[in-house]
Design a protein that fits this description.
The complex is a heterodimer of chains A (384) and B (246). With 384 residues, chain A is mainly α. In chain A, 79% of the residues lie in helices and 3% in strands. Chain A has 2 domains: 124 residues, no CATH class; 215 residues, MetI-like (MetI-like fold, Orthogonal Bundle). Chain A contains 15 helices and 3 strands. In chain A, strands 2-1-3 form a 3-stranded antiparallel sheet. The two termini of chain A are 32 Å apart. The chains are: A mainly alpha (384), B mainly alpha (246).
């Protein structure tokens, strides 16, 4: 089918991208990290030859978006767009930063972000149309992460404001990332250890189900910042009353209330999905296993849990993505994690610092979602 | 069991109202948590005003997200917008991996401090569950019912208003409920960027090391979230009984 008609999404992407190039500032040059700066367009910043190359590439991308219908071609064009936009902002950083000056900040402007969203939208659309298998999605993610990390390590973006902020906080950044991951995974791990048996119990004893799920649902409803606050007083009292608890690091402020709250939040999705997964196991399969002479423990682990595993993993995926987001809030009560940069940045009105916390958080949550979705889908495919 | 649940609900509501109207009558309960004679009850603003401001922010933002999300959901399930359906689903999936705090923090550089970034974050984040559930609800309508409606001579518009939307309504309301609950939490964090709300009480407690403030801010925010959730569940039950599209 060779239809020559304009792709509607391509038209949207092109219109948004062109508007961003024409009317929005590509970079903002700030005298220091806090003061507002003056806006510059892409054409005003880059050397003429680079500008021409850049615009030529973007026009190519727009043409592909408008007229090409093959998803691989559209994906390639979108990736070219991402590379061009990244290269342009990197060059802008190098050009605008006076040599040796460590005070001036070159911040990506709204035009840069809108342009990035436009090409990102095109890439997302192409990938959606390609319908890649789970392994291919993980491979794409890994490739993208590798290229990005290589560029970052190579210093490609070192003159940009966010990376300046990173350079100042490099040591703390590594520490907070570790703390962030540890808080998210640690609370998830403990929750799974408790939630699996609880889910099995709720499945076996239907009388318990309403009460347990209802209680966990109420906990899930309480906003994170409120639950952190509610837990601080009792944990503080515990630490004051029991010296051993205090020695173990349990205090009213810091990581302890965050871990307890995240643990409580993690219970509902895992328990509910364990119950739902076990409920979907066909009684015939259980009967057959019993008929083969399996003990009830073998039936549980070998048949019921293994059949329910994809559903349980879906619950774990929900928890992990949710936890990575919620850990950000833990910074408010001294729990550490990437939220430290977000809230410090908000406090100092230093937007670059906010982004230093927010961008890696989103990247972590997104990667976790892609990885676990791929695992769940692979399992479901294997079953069919 | 329903009787005791209703009783609990009523008690929670009574506690919330009593605390907001006469906070100082609860002072003796919170005094043990304070140190060096610090105030036991938040004294830098009226708790009732803060609570109403937060609820107002949440309701405004969620109302706006509902209008836009339901509109978009209808658009991508019509034949003319169908080619945007797979993409919009992917975008919703990606959007939901964004932590609400990150959305809030990213809104600040765009519009500055105050109520605006909070409203924007609540609006954007509120869109996702409602949009997702609108699509789910509209696509779950049995094709036979839709064909029967067309056969009866209904126009696409009539079919949407009198068949599809009513059938999708339970799921749409569930989406609104999820948005509301998430938004109460995000609105509380909005206090860090200058929006009025009960988060202010928690933040003030954290800054001045006053556990009484932290606890009362947390309890009030939690109570509001639970009661909002509960009200929505009650509304859904009243309207649709226990009928659910799974």
């Amino acid at each position: 089918m060779t239809q020559h008609r304009i792709d509607p999404l391509g038209a949207l992407v092109t219109a948004v991208g062109a508007a961003a190039l024409l009317w929005l500032p590509f970079v903002v040059l700030k005298p220091n990290r806090i003061l507002p700066g003056d806006a510059r367009s892409l054409i005003a910043v880059l050397p003429p030859s680079t500008t021409i190359a850049c615009l030529a590439c973007l026009i190519l991308v727009a043409l592909a978006a408008l007229a090409m219908s093959k998803p691989p071609v559209r994906l390639a064009a979108a990736l070219l767009g991402v590379i061009v936009v990244a290269a342009a902002i990197s060059t802008a950083g190098d050009v605008l930063t006076p040599p040796g000056n460590r005070v001036v900040r070159v911040a990506p402007g709204s035009g840069f972000w809108v342009l990035l969203v436009a090409v990102g939208l095109m890439a997302t659309d192409a990938i959606t149309r390609l319908r890649p298998r789970p392994a291919a999605r993980v491979l794409m993610l890994a490739l993208f992460a590798a290229v990005t990390l290589f560029a970052l390590a190579h210093g490609t973006f070192d003159h940009l404001s966010v990376m300046r902020e990173y350079a100042v906080n490099a040591g703390r950044f590594a520490h907070e990332v570790r703390q962030h991951v540890w808080l998210a995974l640690g609370s998830l791990g403990t929750a799974v250890i408790v939630a699996l048996p609880l889910g099995i119990l709720c499945h076996r004893v239907p009388r318990l189900r309403g009460g347990v799920l209802g209680t966990l649902n109420v906990i899930q409803t309480i906003p994170a910042i409120a639950l952190f606050g509610i837990l601080m007083a009792p944990l503080g009292a515990l630490a004051a009353a029991v010296p051993l608890a205090a020695q173990l690091g349990i205090r009213g402020i810091g990581a302890a209330p965050a871990v307890v709250a995240l643990f409580l939040y993690s219970l509902l999705p895992v328990v509910a999905n364990t119950v739902a997964g076990l409920k979907r196991v066909s009684p015939a399969a259980v009967e057959a296993a019993r008929g083969m002479g399996m003990t009830s423990w073998q039936v549980l682990t070998g048949v019921e849990l293994s059949l329910a595993l994809p559903t349980i993993l879906t619950g774990i995926r929900i928890v992990l993505v949710q936890n990575i987001g919620l850990v950000t809030v833990a910074a408010l009560i001294g729990g550490g994690g990437l939220g430290v940069f977000v809230f410090q940045g908000i406090g100092q009105t230093a937007i670059d610092l906010v982004l230093l916390g927010a961008i890696p958080t989103v990247a972590l949550a997104f990667s976790a979602a892609v990885l676990l979705d791929a695992v769940v889908e692979t399992m479901n495919r294997a079953r069919q | 069991m329903p009787g005791s649940a209703a009783l609990l609900r009523l008690a929670a509501l009574a506690l919330l109202v009593a605390f907001l109207l006469t906070p100082y009558s609860f002072a003796p309960l919170f005094e043990p948590l304070t140190q060096y004679g610090a105030p036991a009850i938040y004294d830098q603003g009226n708790l009732l005003t803060l609570a109403l401001a937060q609820i107002g922010t949440v309701l405004c933002a969620t109302a706006a997200s509902t209008l836009v999300a339901v509109g978009l959901g209808i658009a991508v399930t019509r034949p003319s917008g169908a080619q945007f359906l797979p993409l919009s689903r992917t975008l919703v999936n990606i959007g939901q991996t964004f932590p609400p705090v990150a959305v809030l923090a990213i809104a600040v550089p765009l519009v500055g401090f105050g109520l605006k970034p909070t409203l924007i974050a609540l609006f954007c984040y509120g869109l996702l569950p409602i949009f997702e559930n609108t699509i789910g609800g509209l696509r779950a309508c049995p094709p036979a019912v839709l064909e029967a409606a067309s056969g009866m001579g209904m126009s696409p518009g009539q079919r949407l208003l009198s068949i599809e939307l009513p059938l999708a309504m339970p799921l749409i309301l569930e989406g609104i409920r999820i948005s509301l609950v998430i938004n109460v939490g995000t609105a509380a964090i909005g206090s860090t960027v200058g929006a009025k709300g009960l988060g202010e009480v928690i933040i003030a407690g954290l800054l001045s090391n006053n556990a009484a403030f932290i606890l009362q801010g947390g309890l009030l925010t939690g109570l509001i979230a639970i009661l909002l959730y509960d009200t929505m569940v009650a509304v859904e039950r009243r309207l649709f009984g226990n009928v659910r599209i799974e």
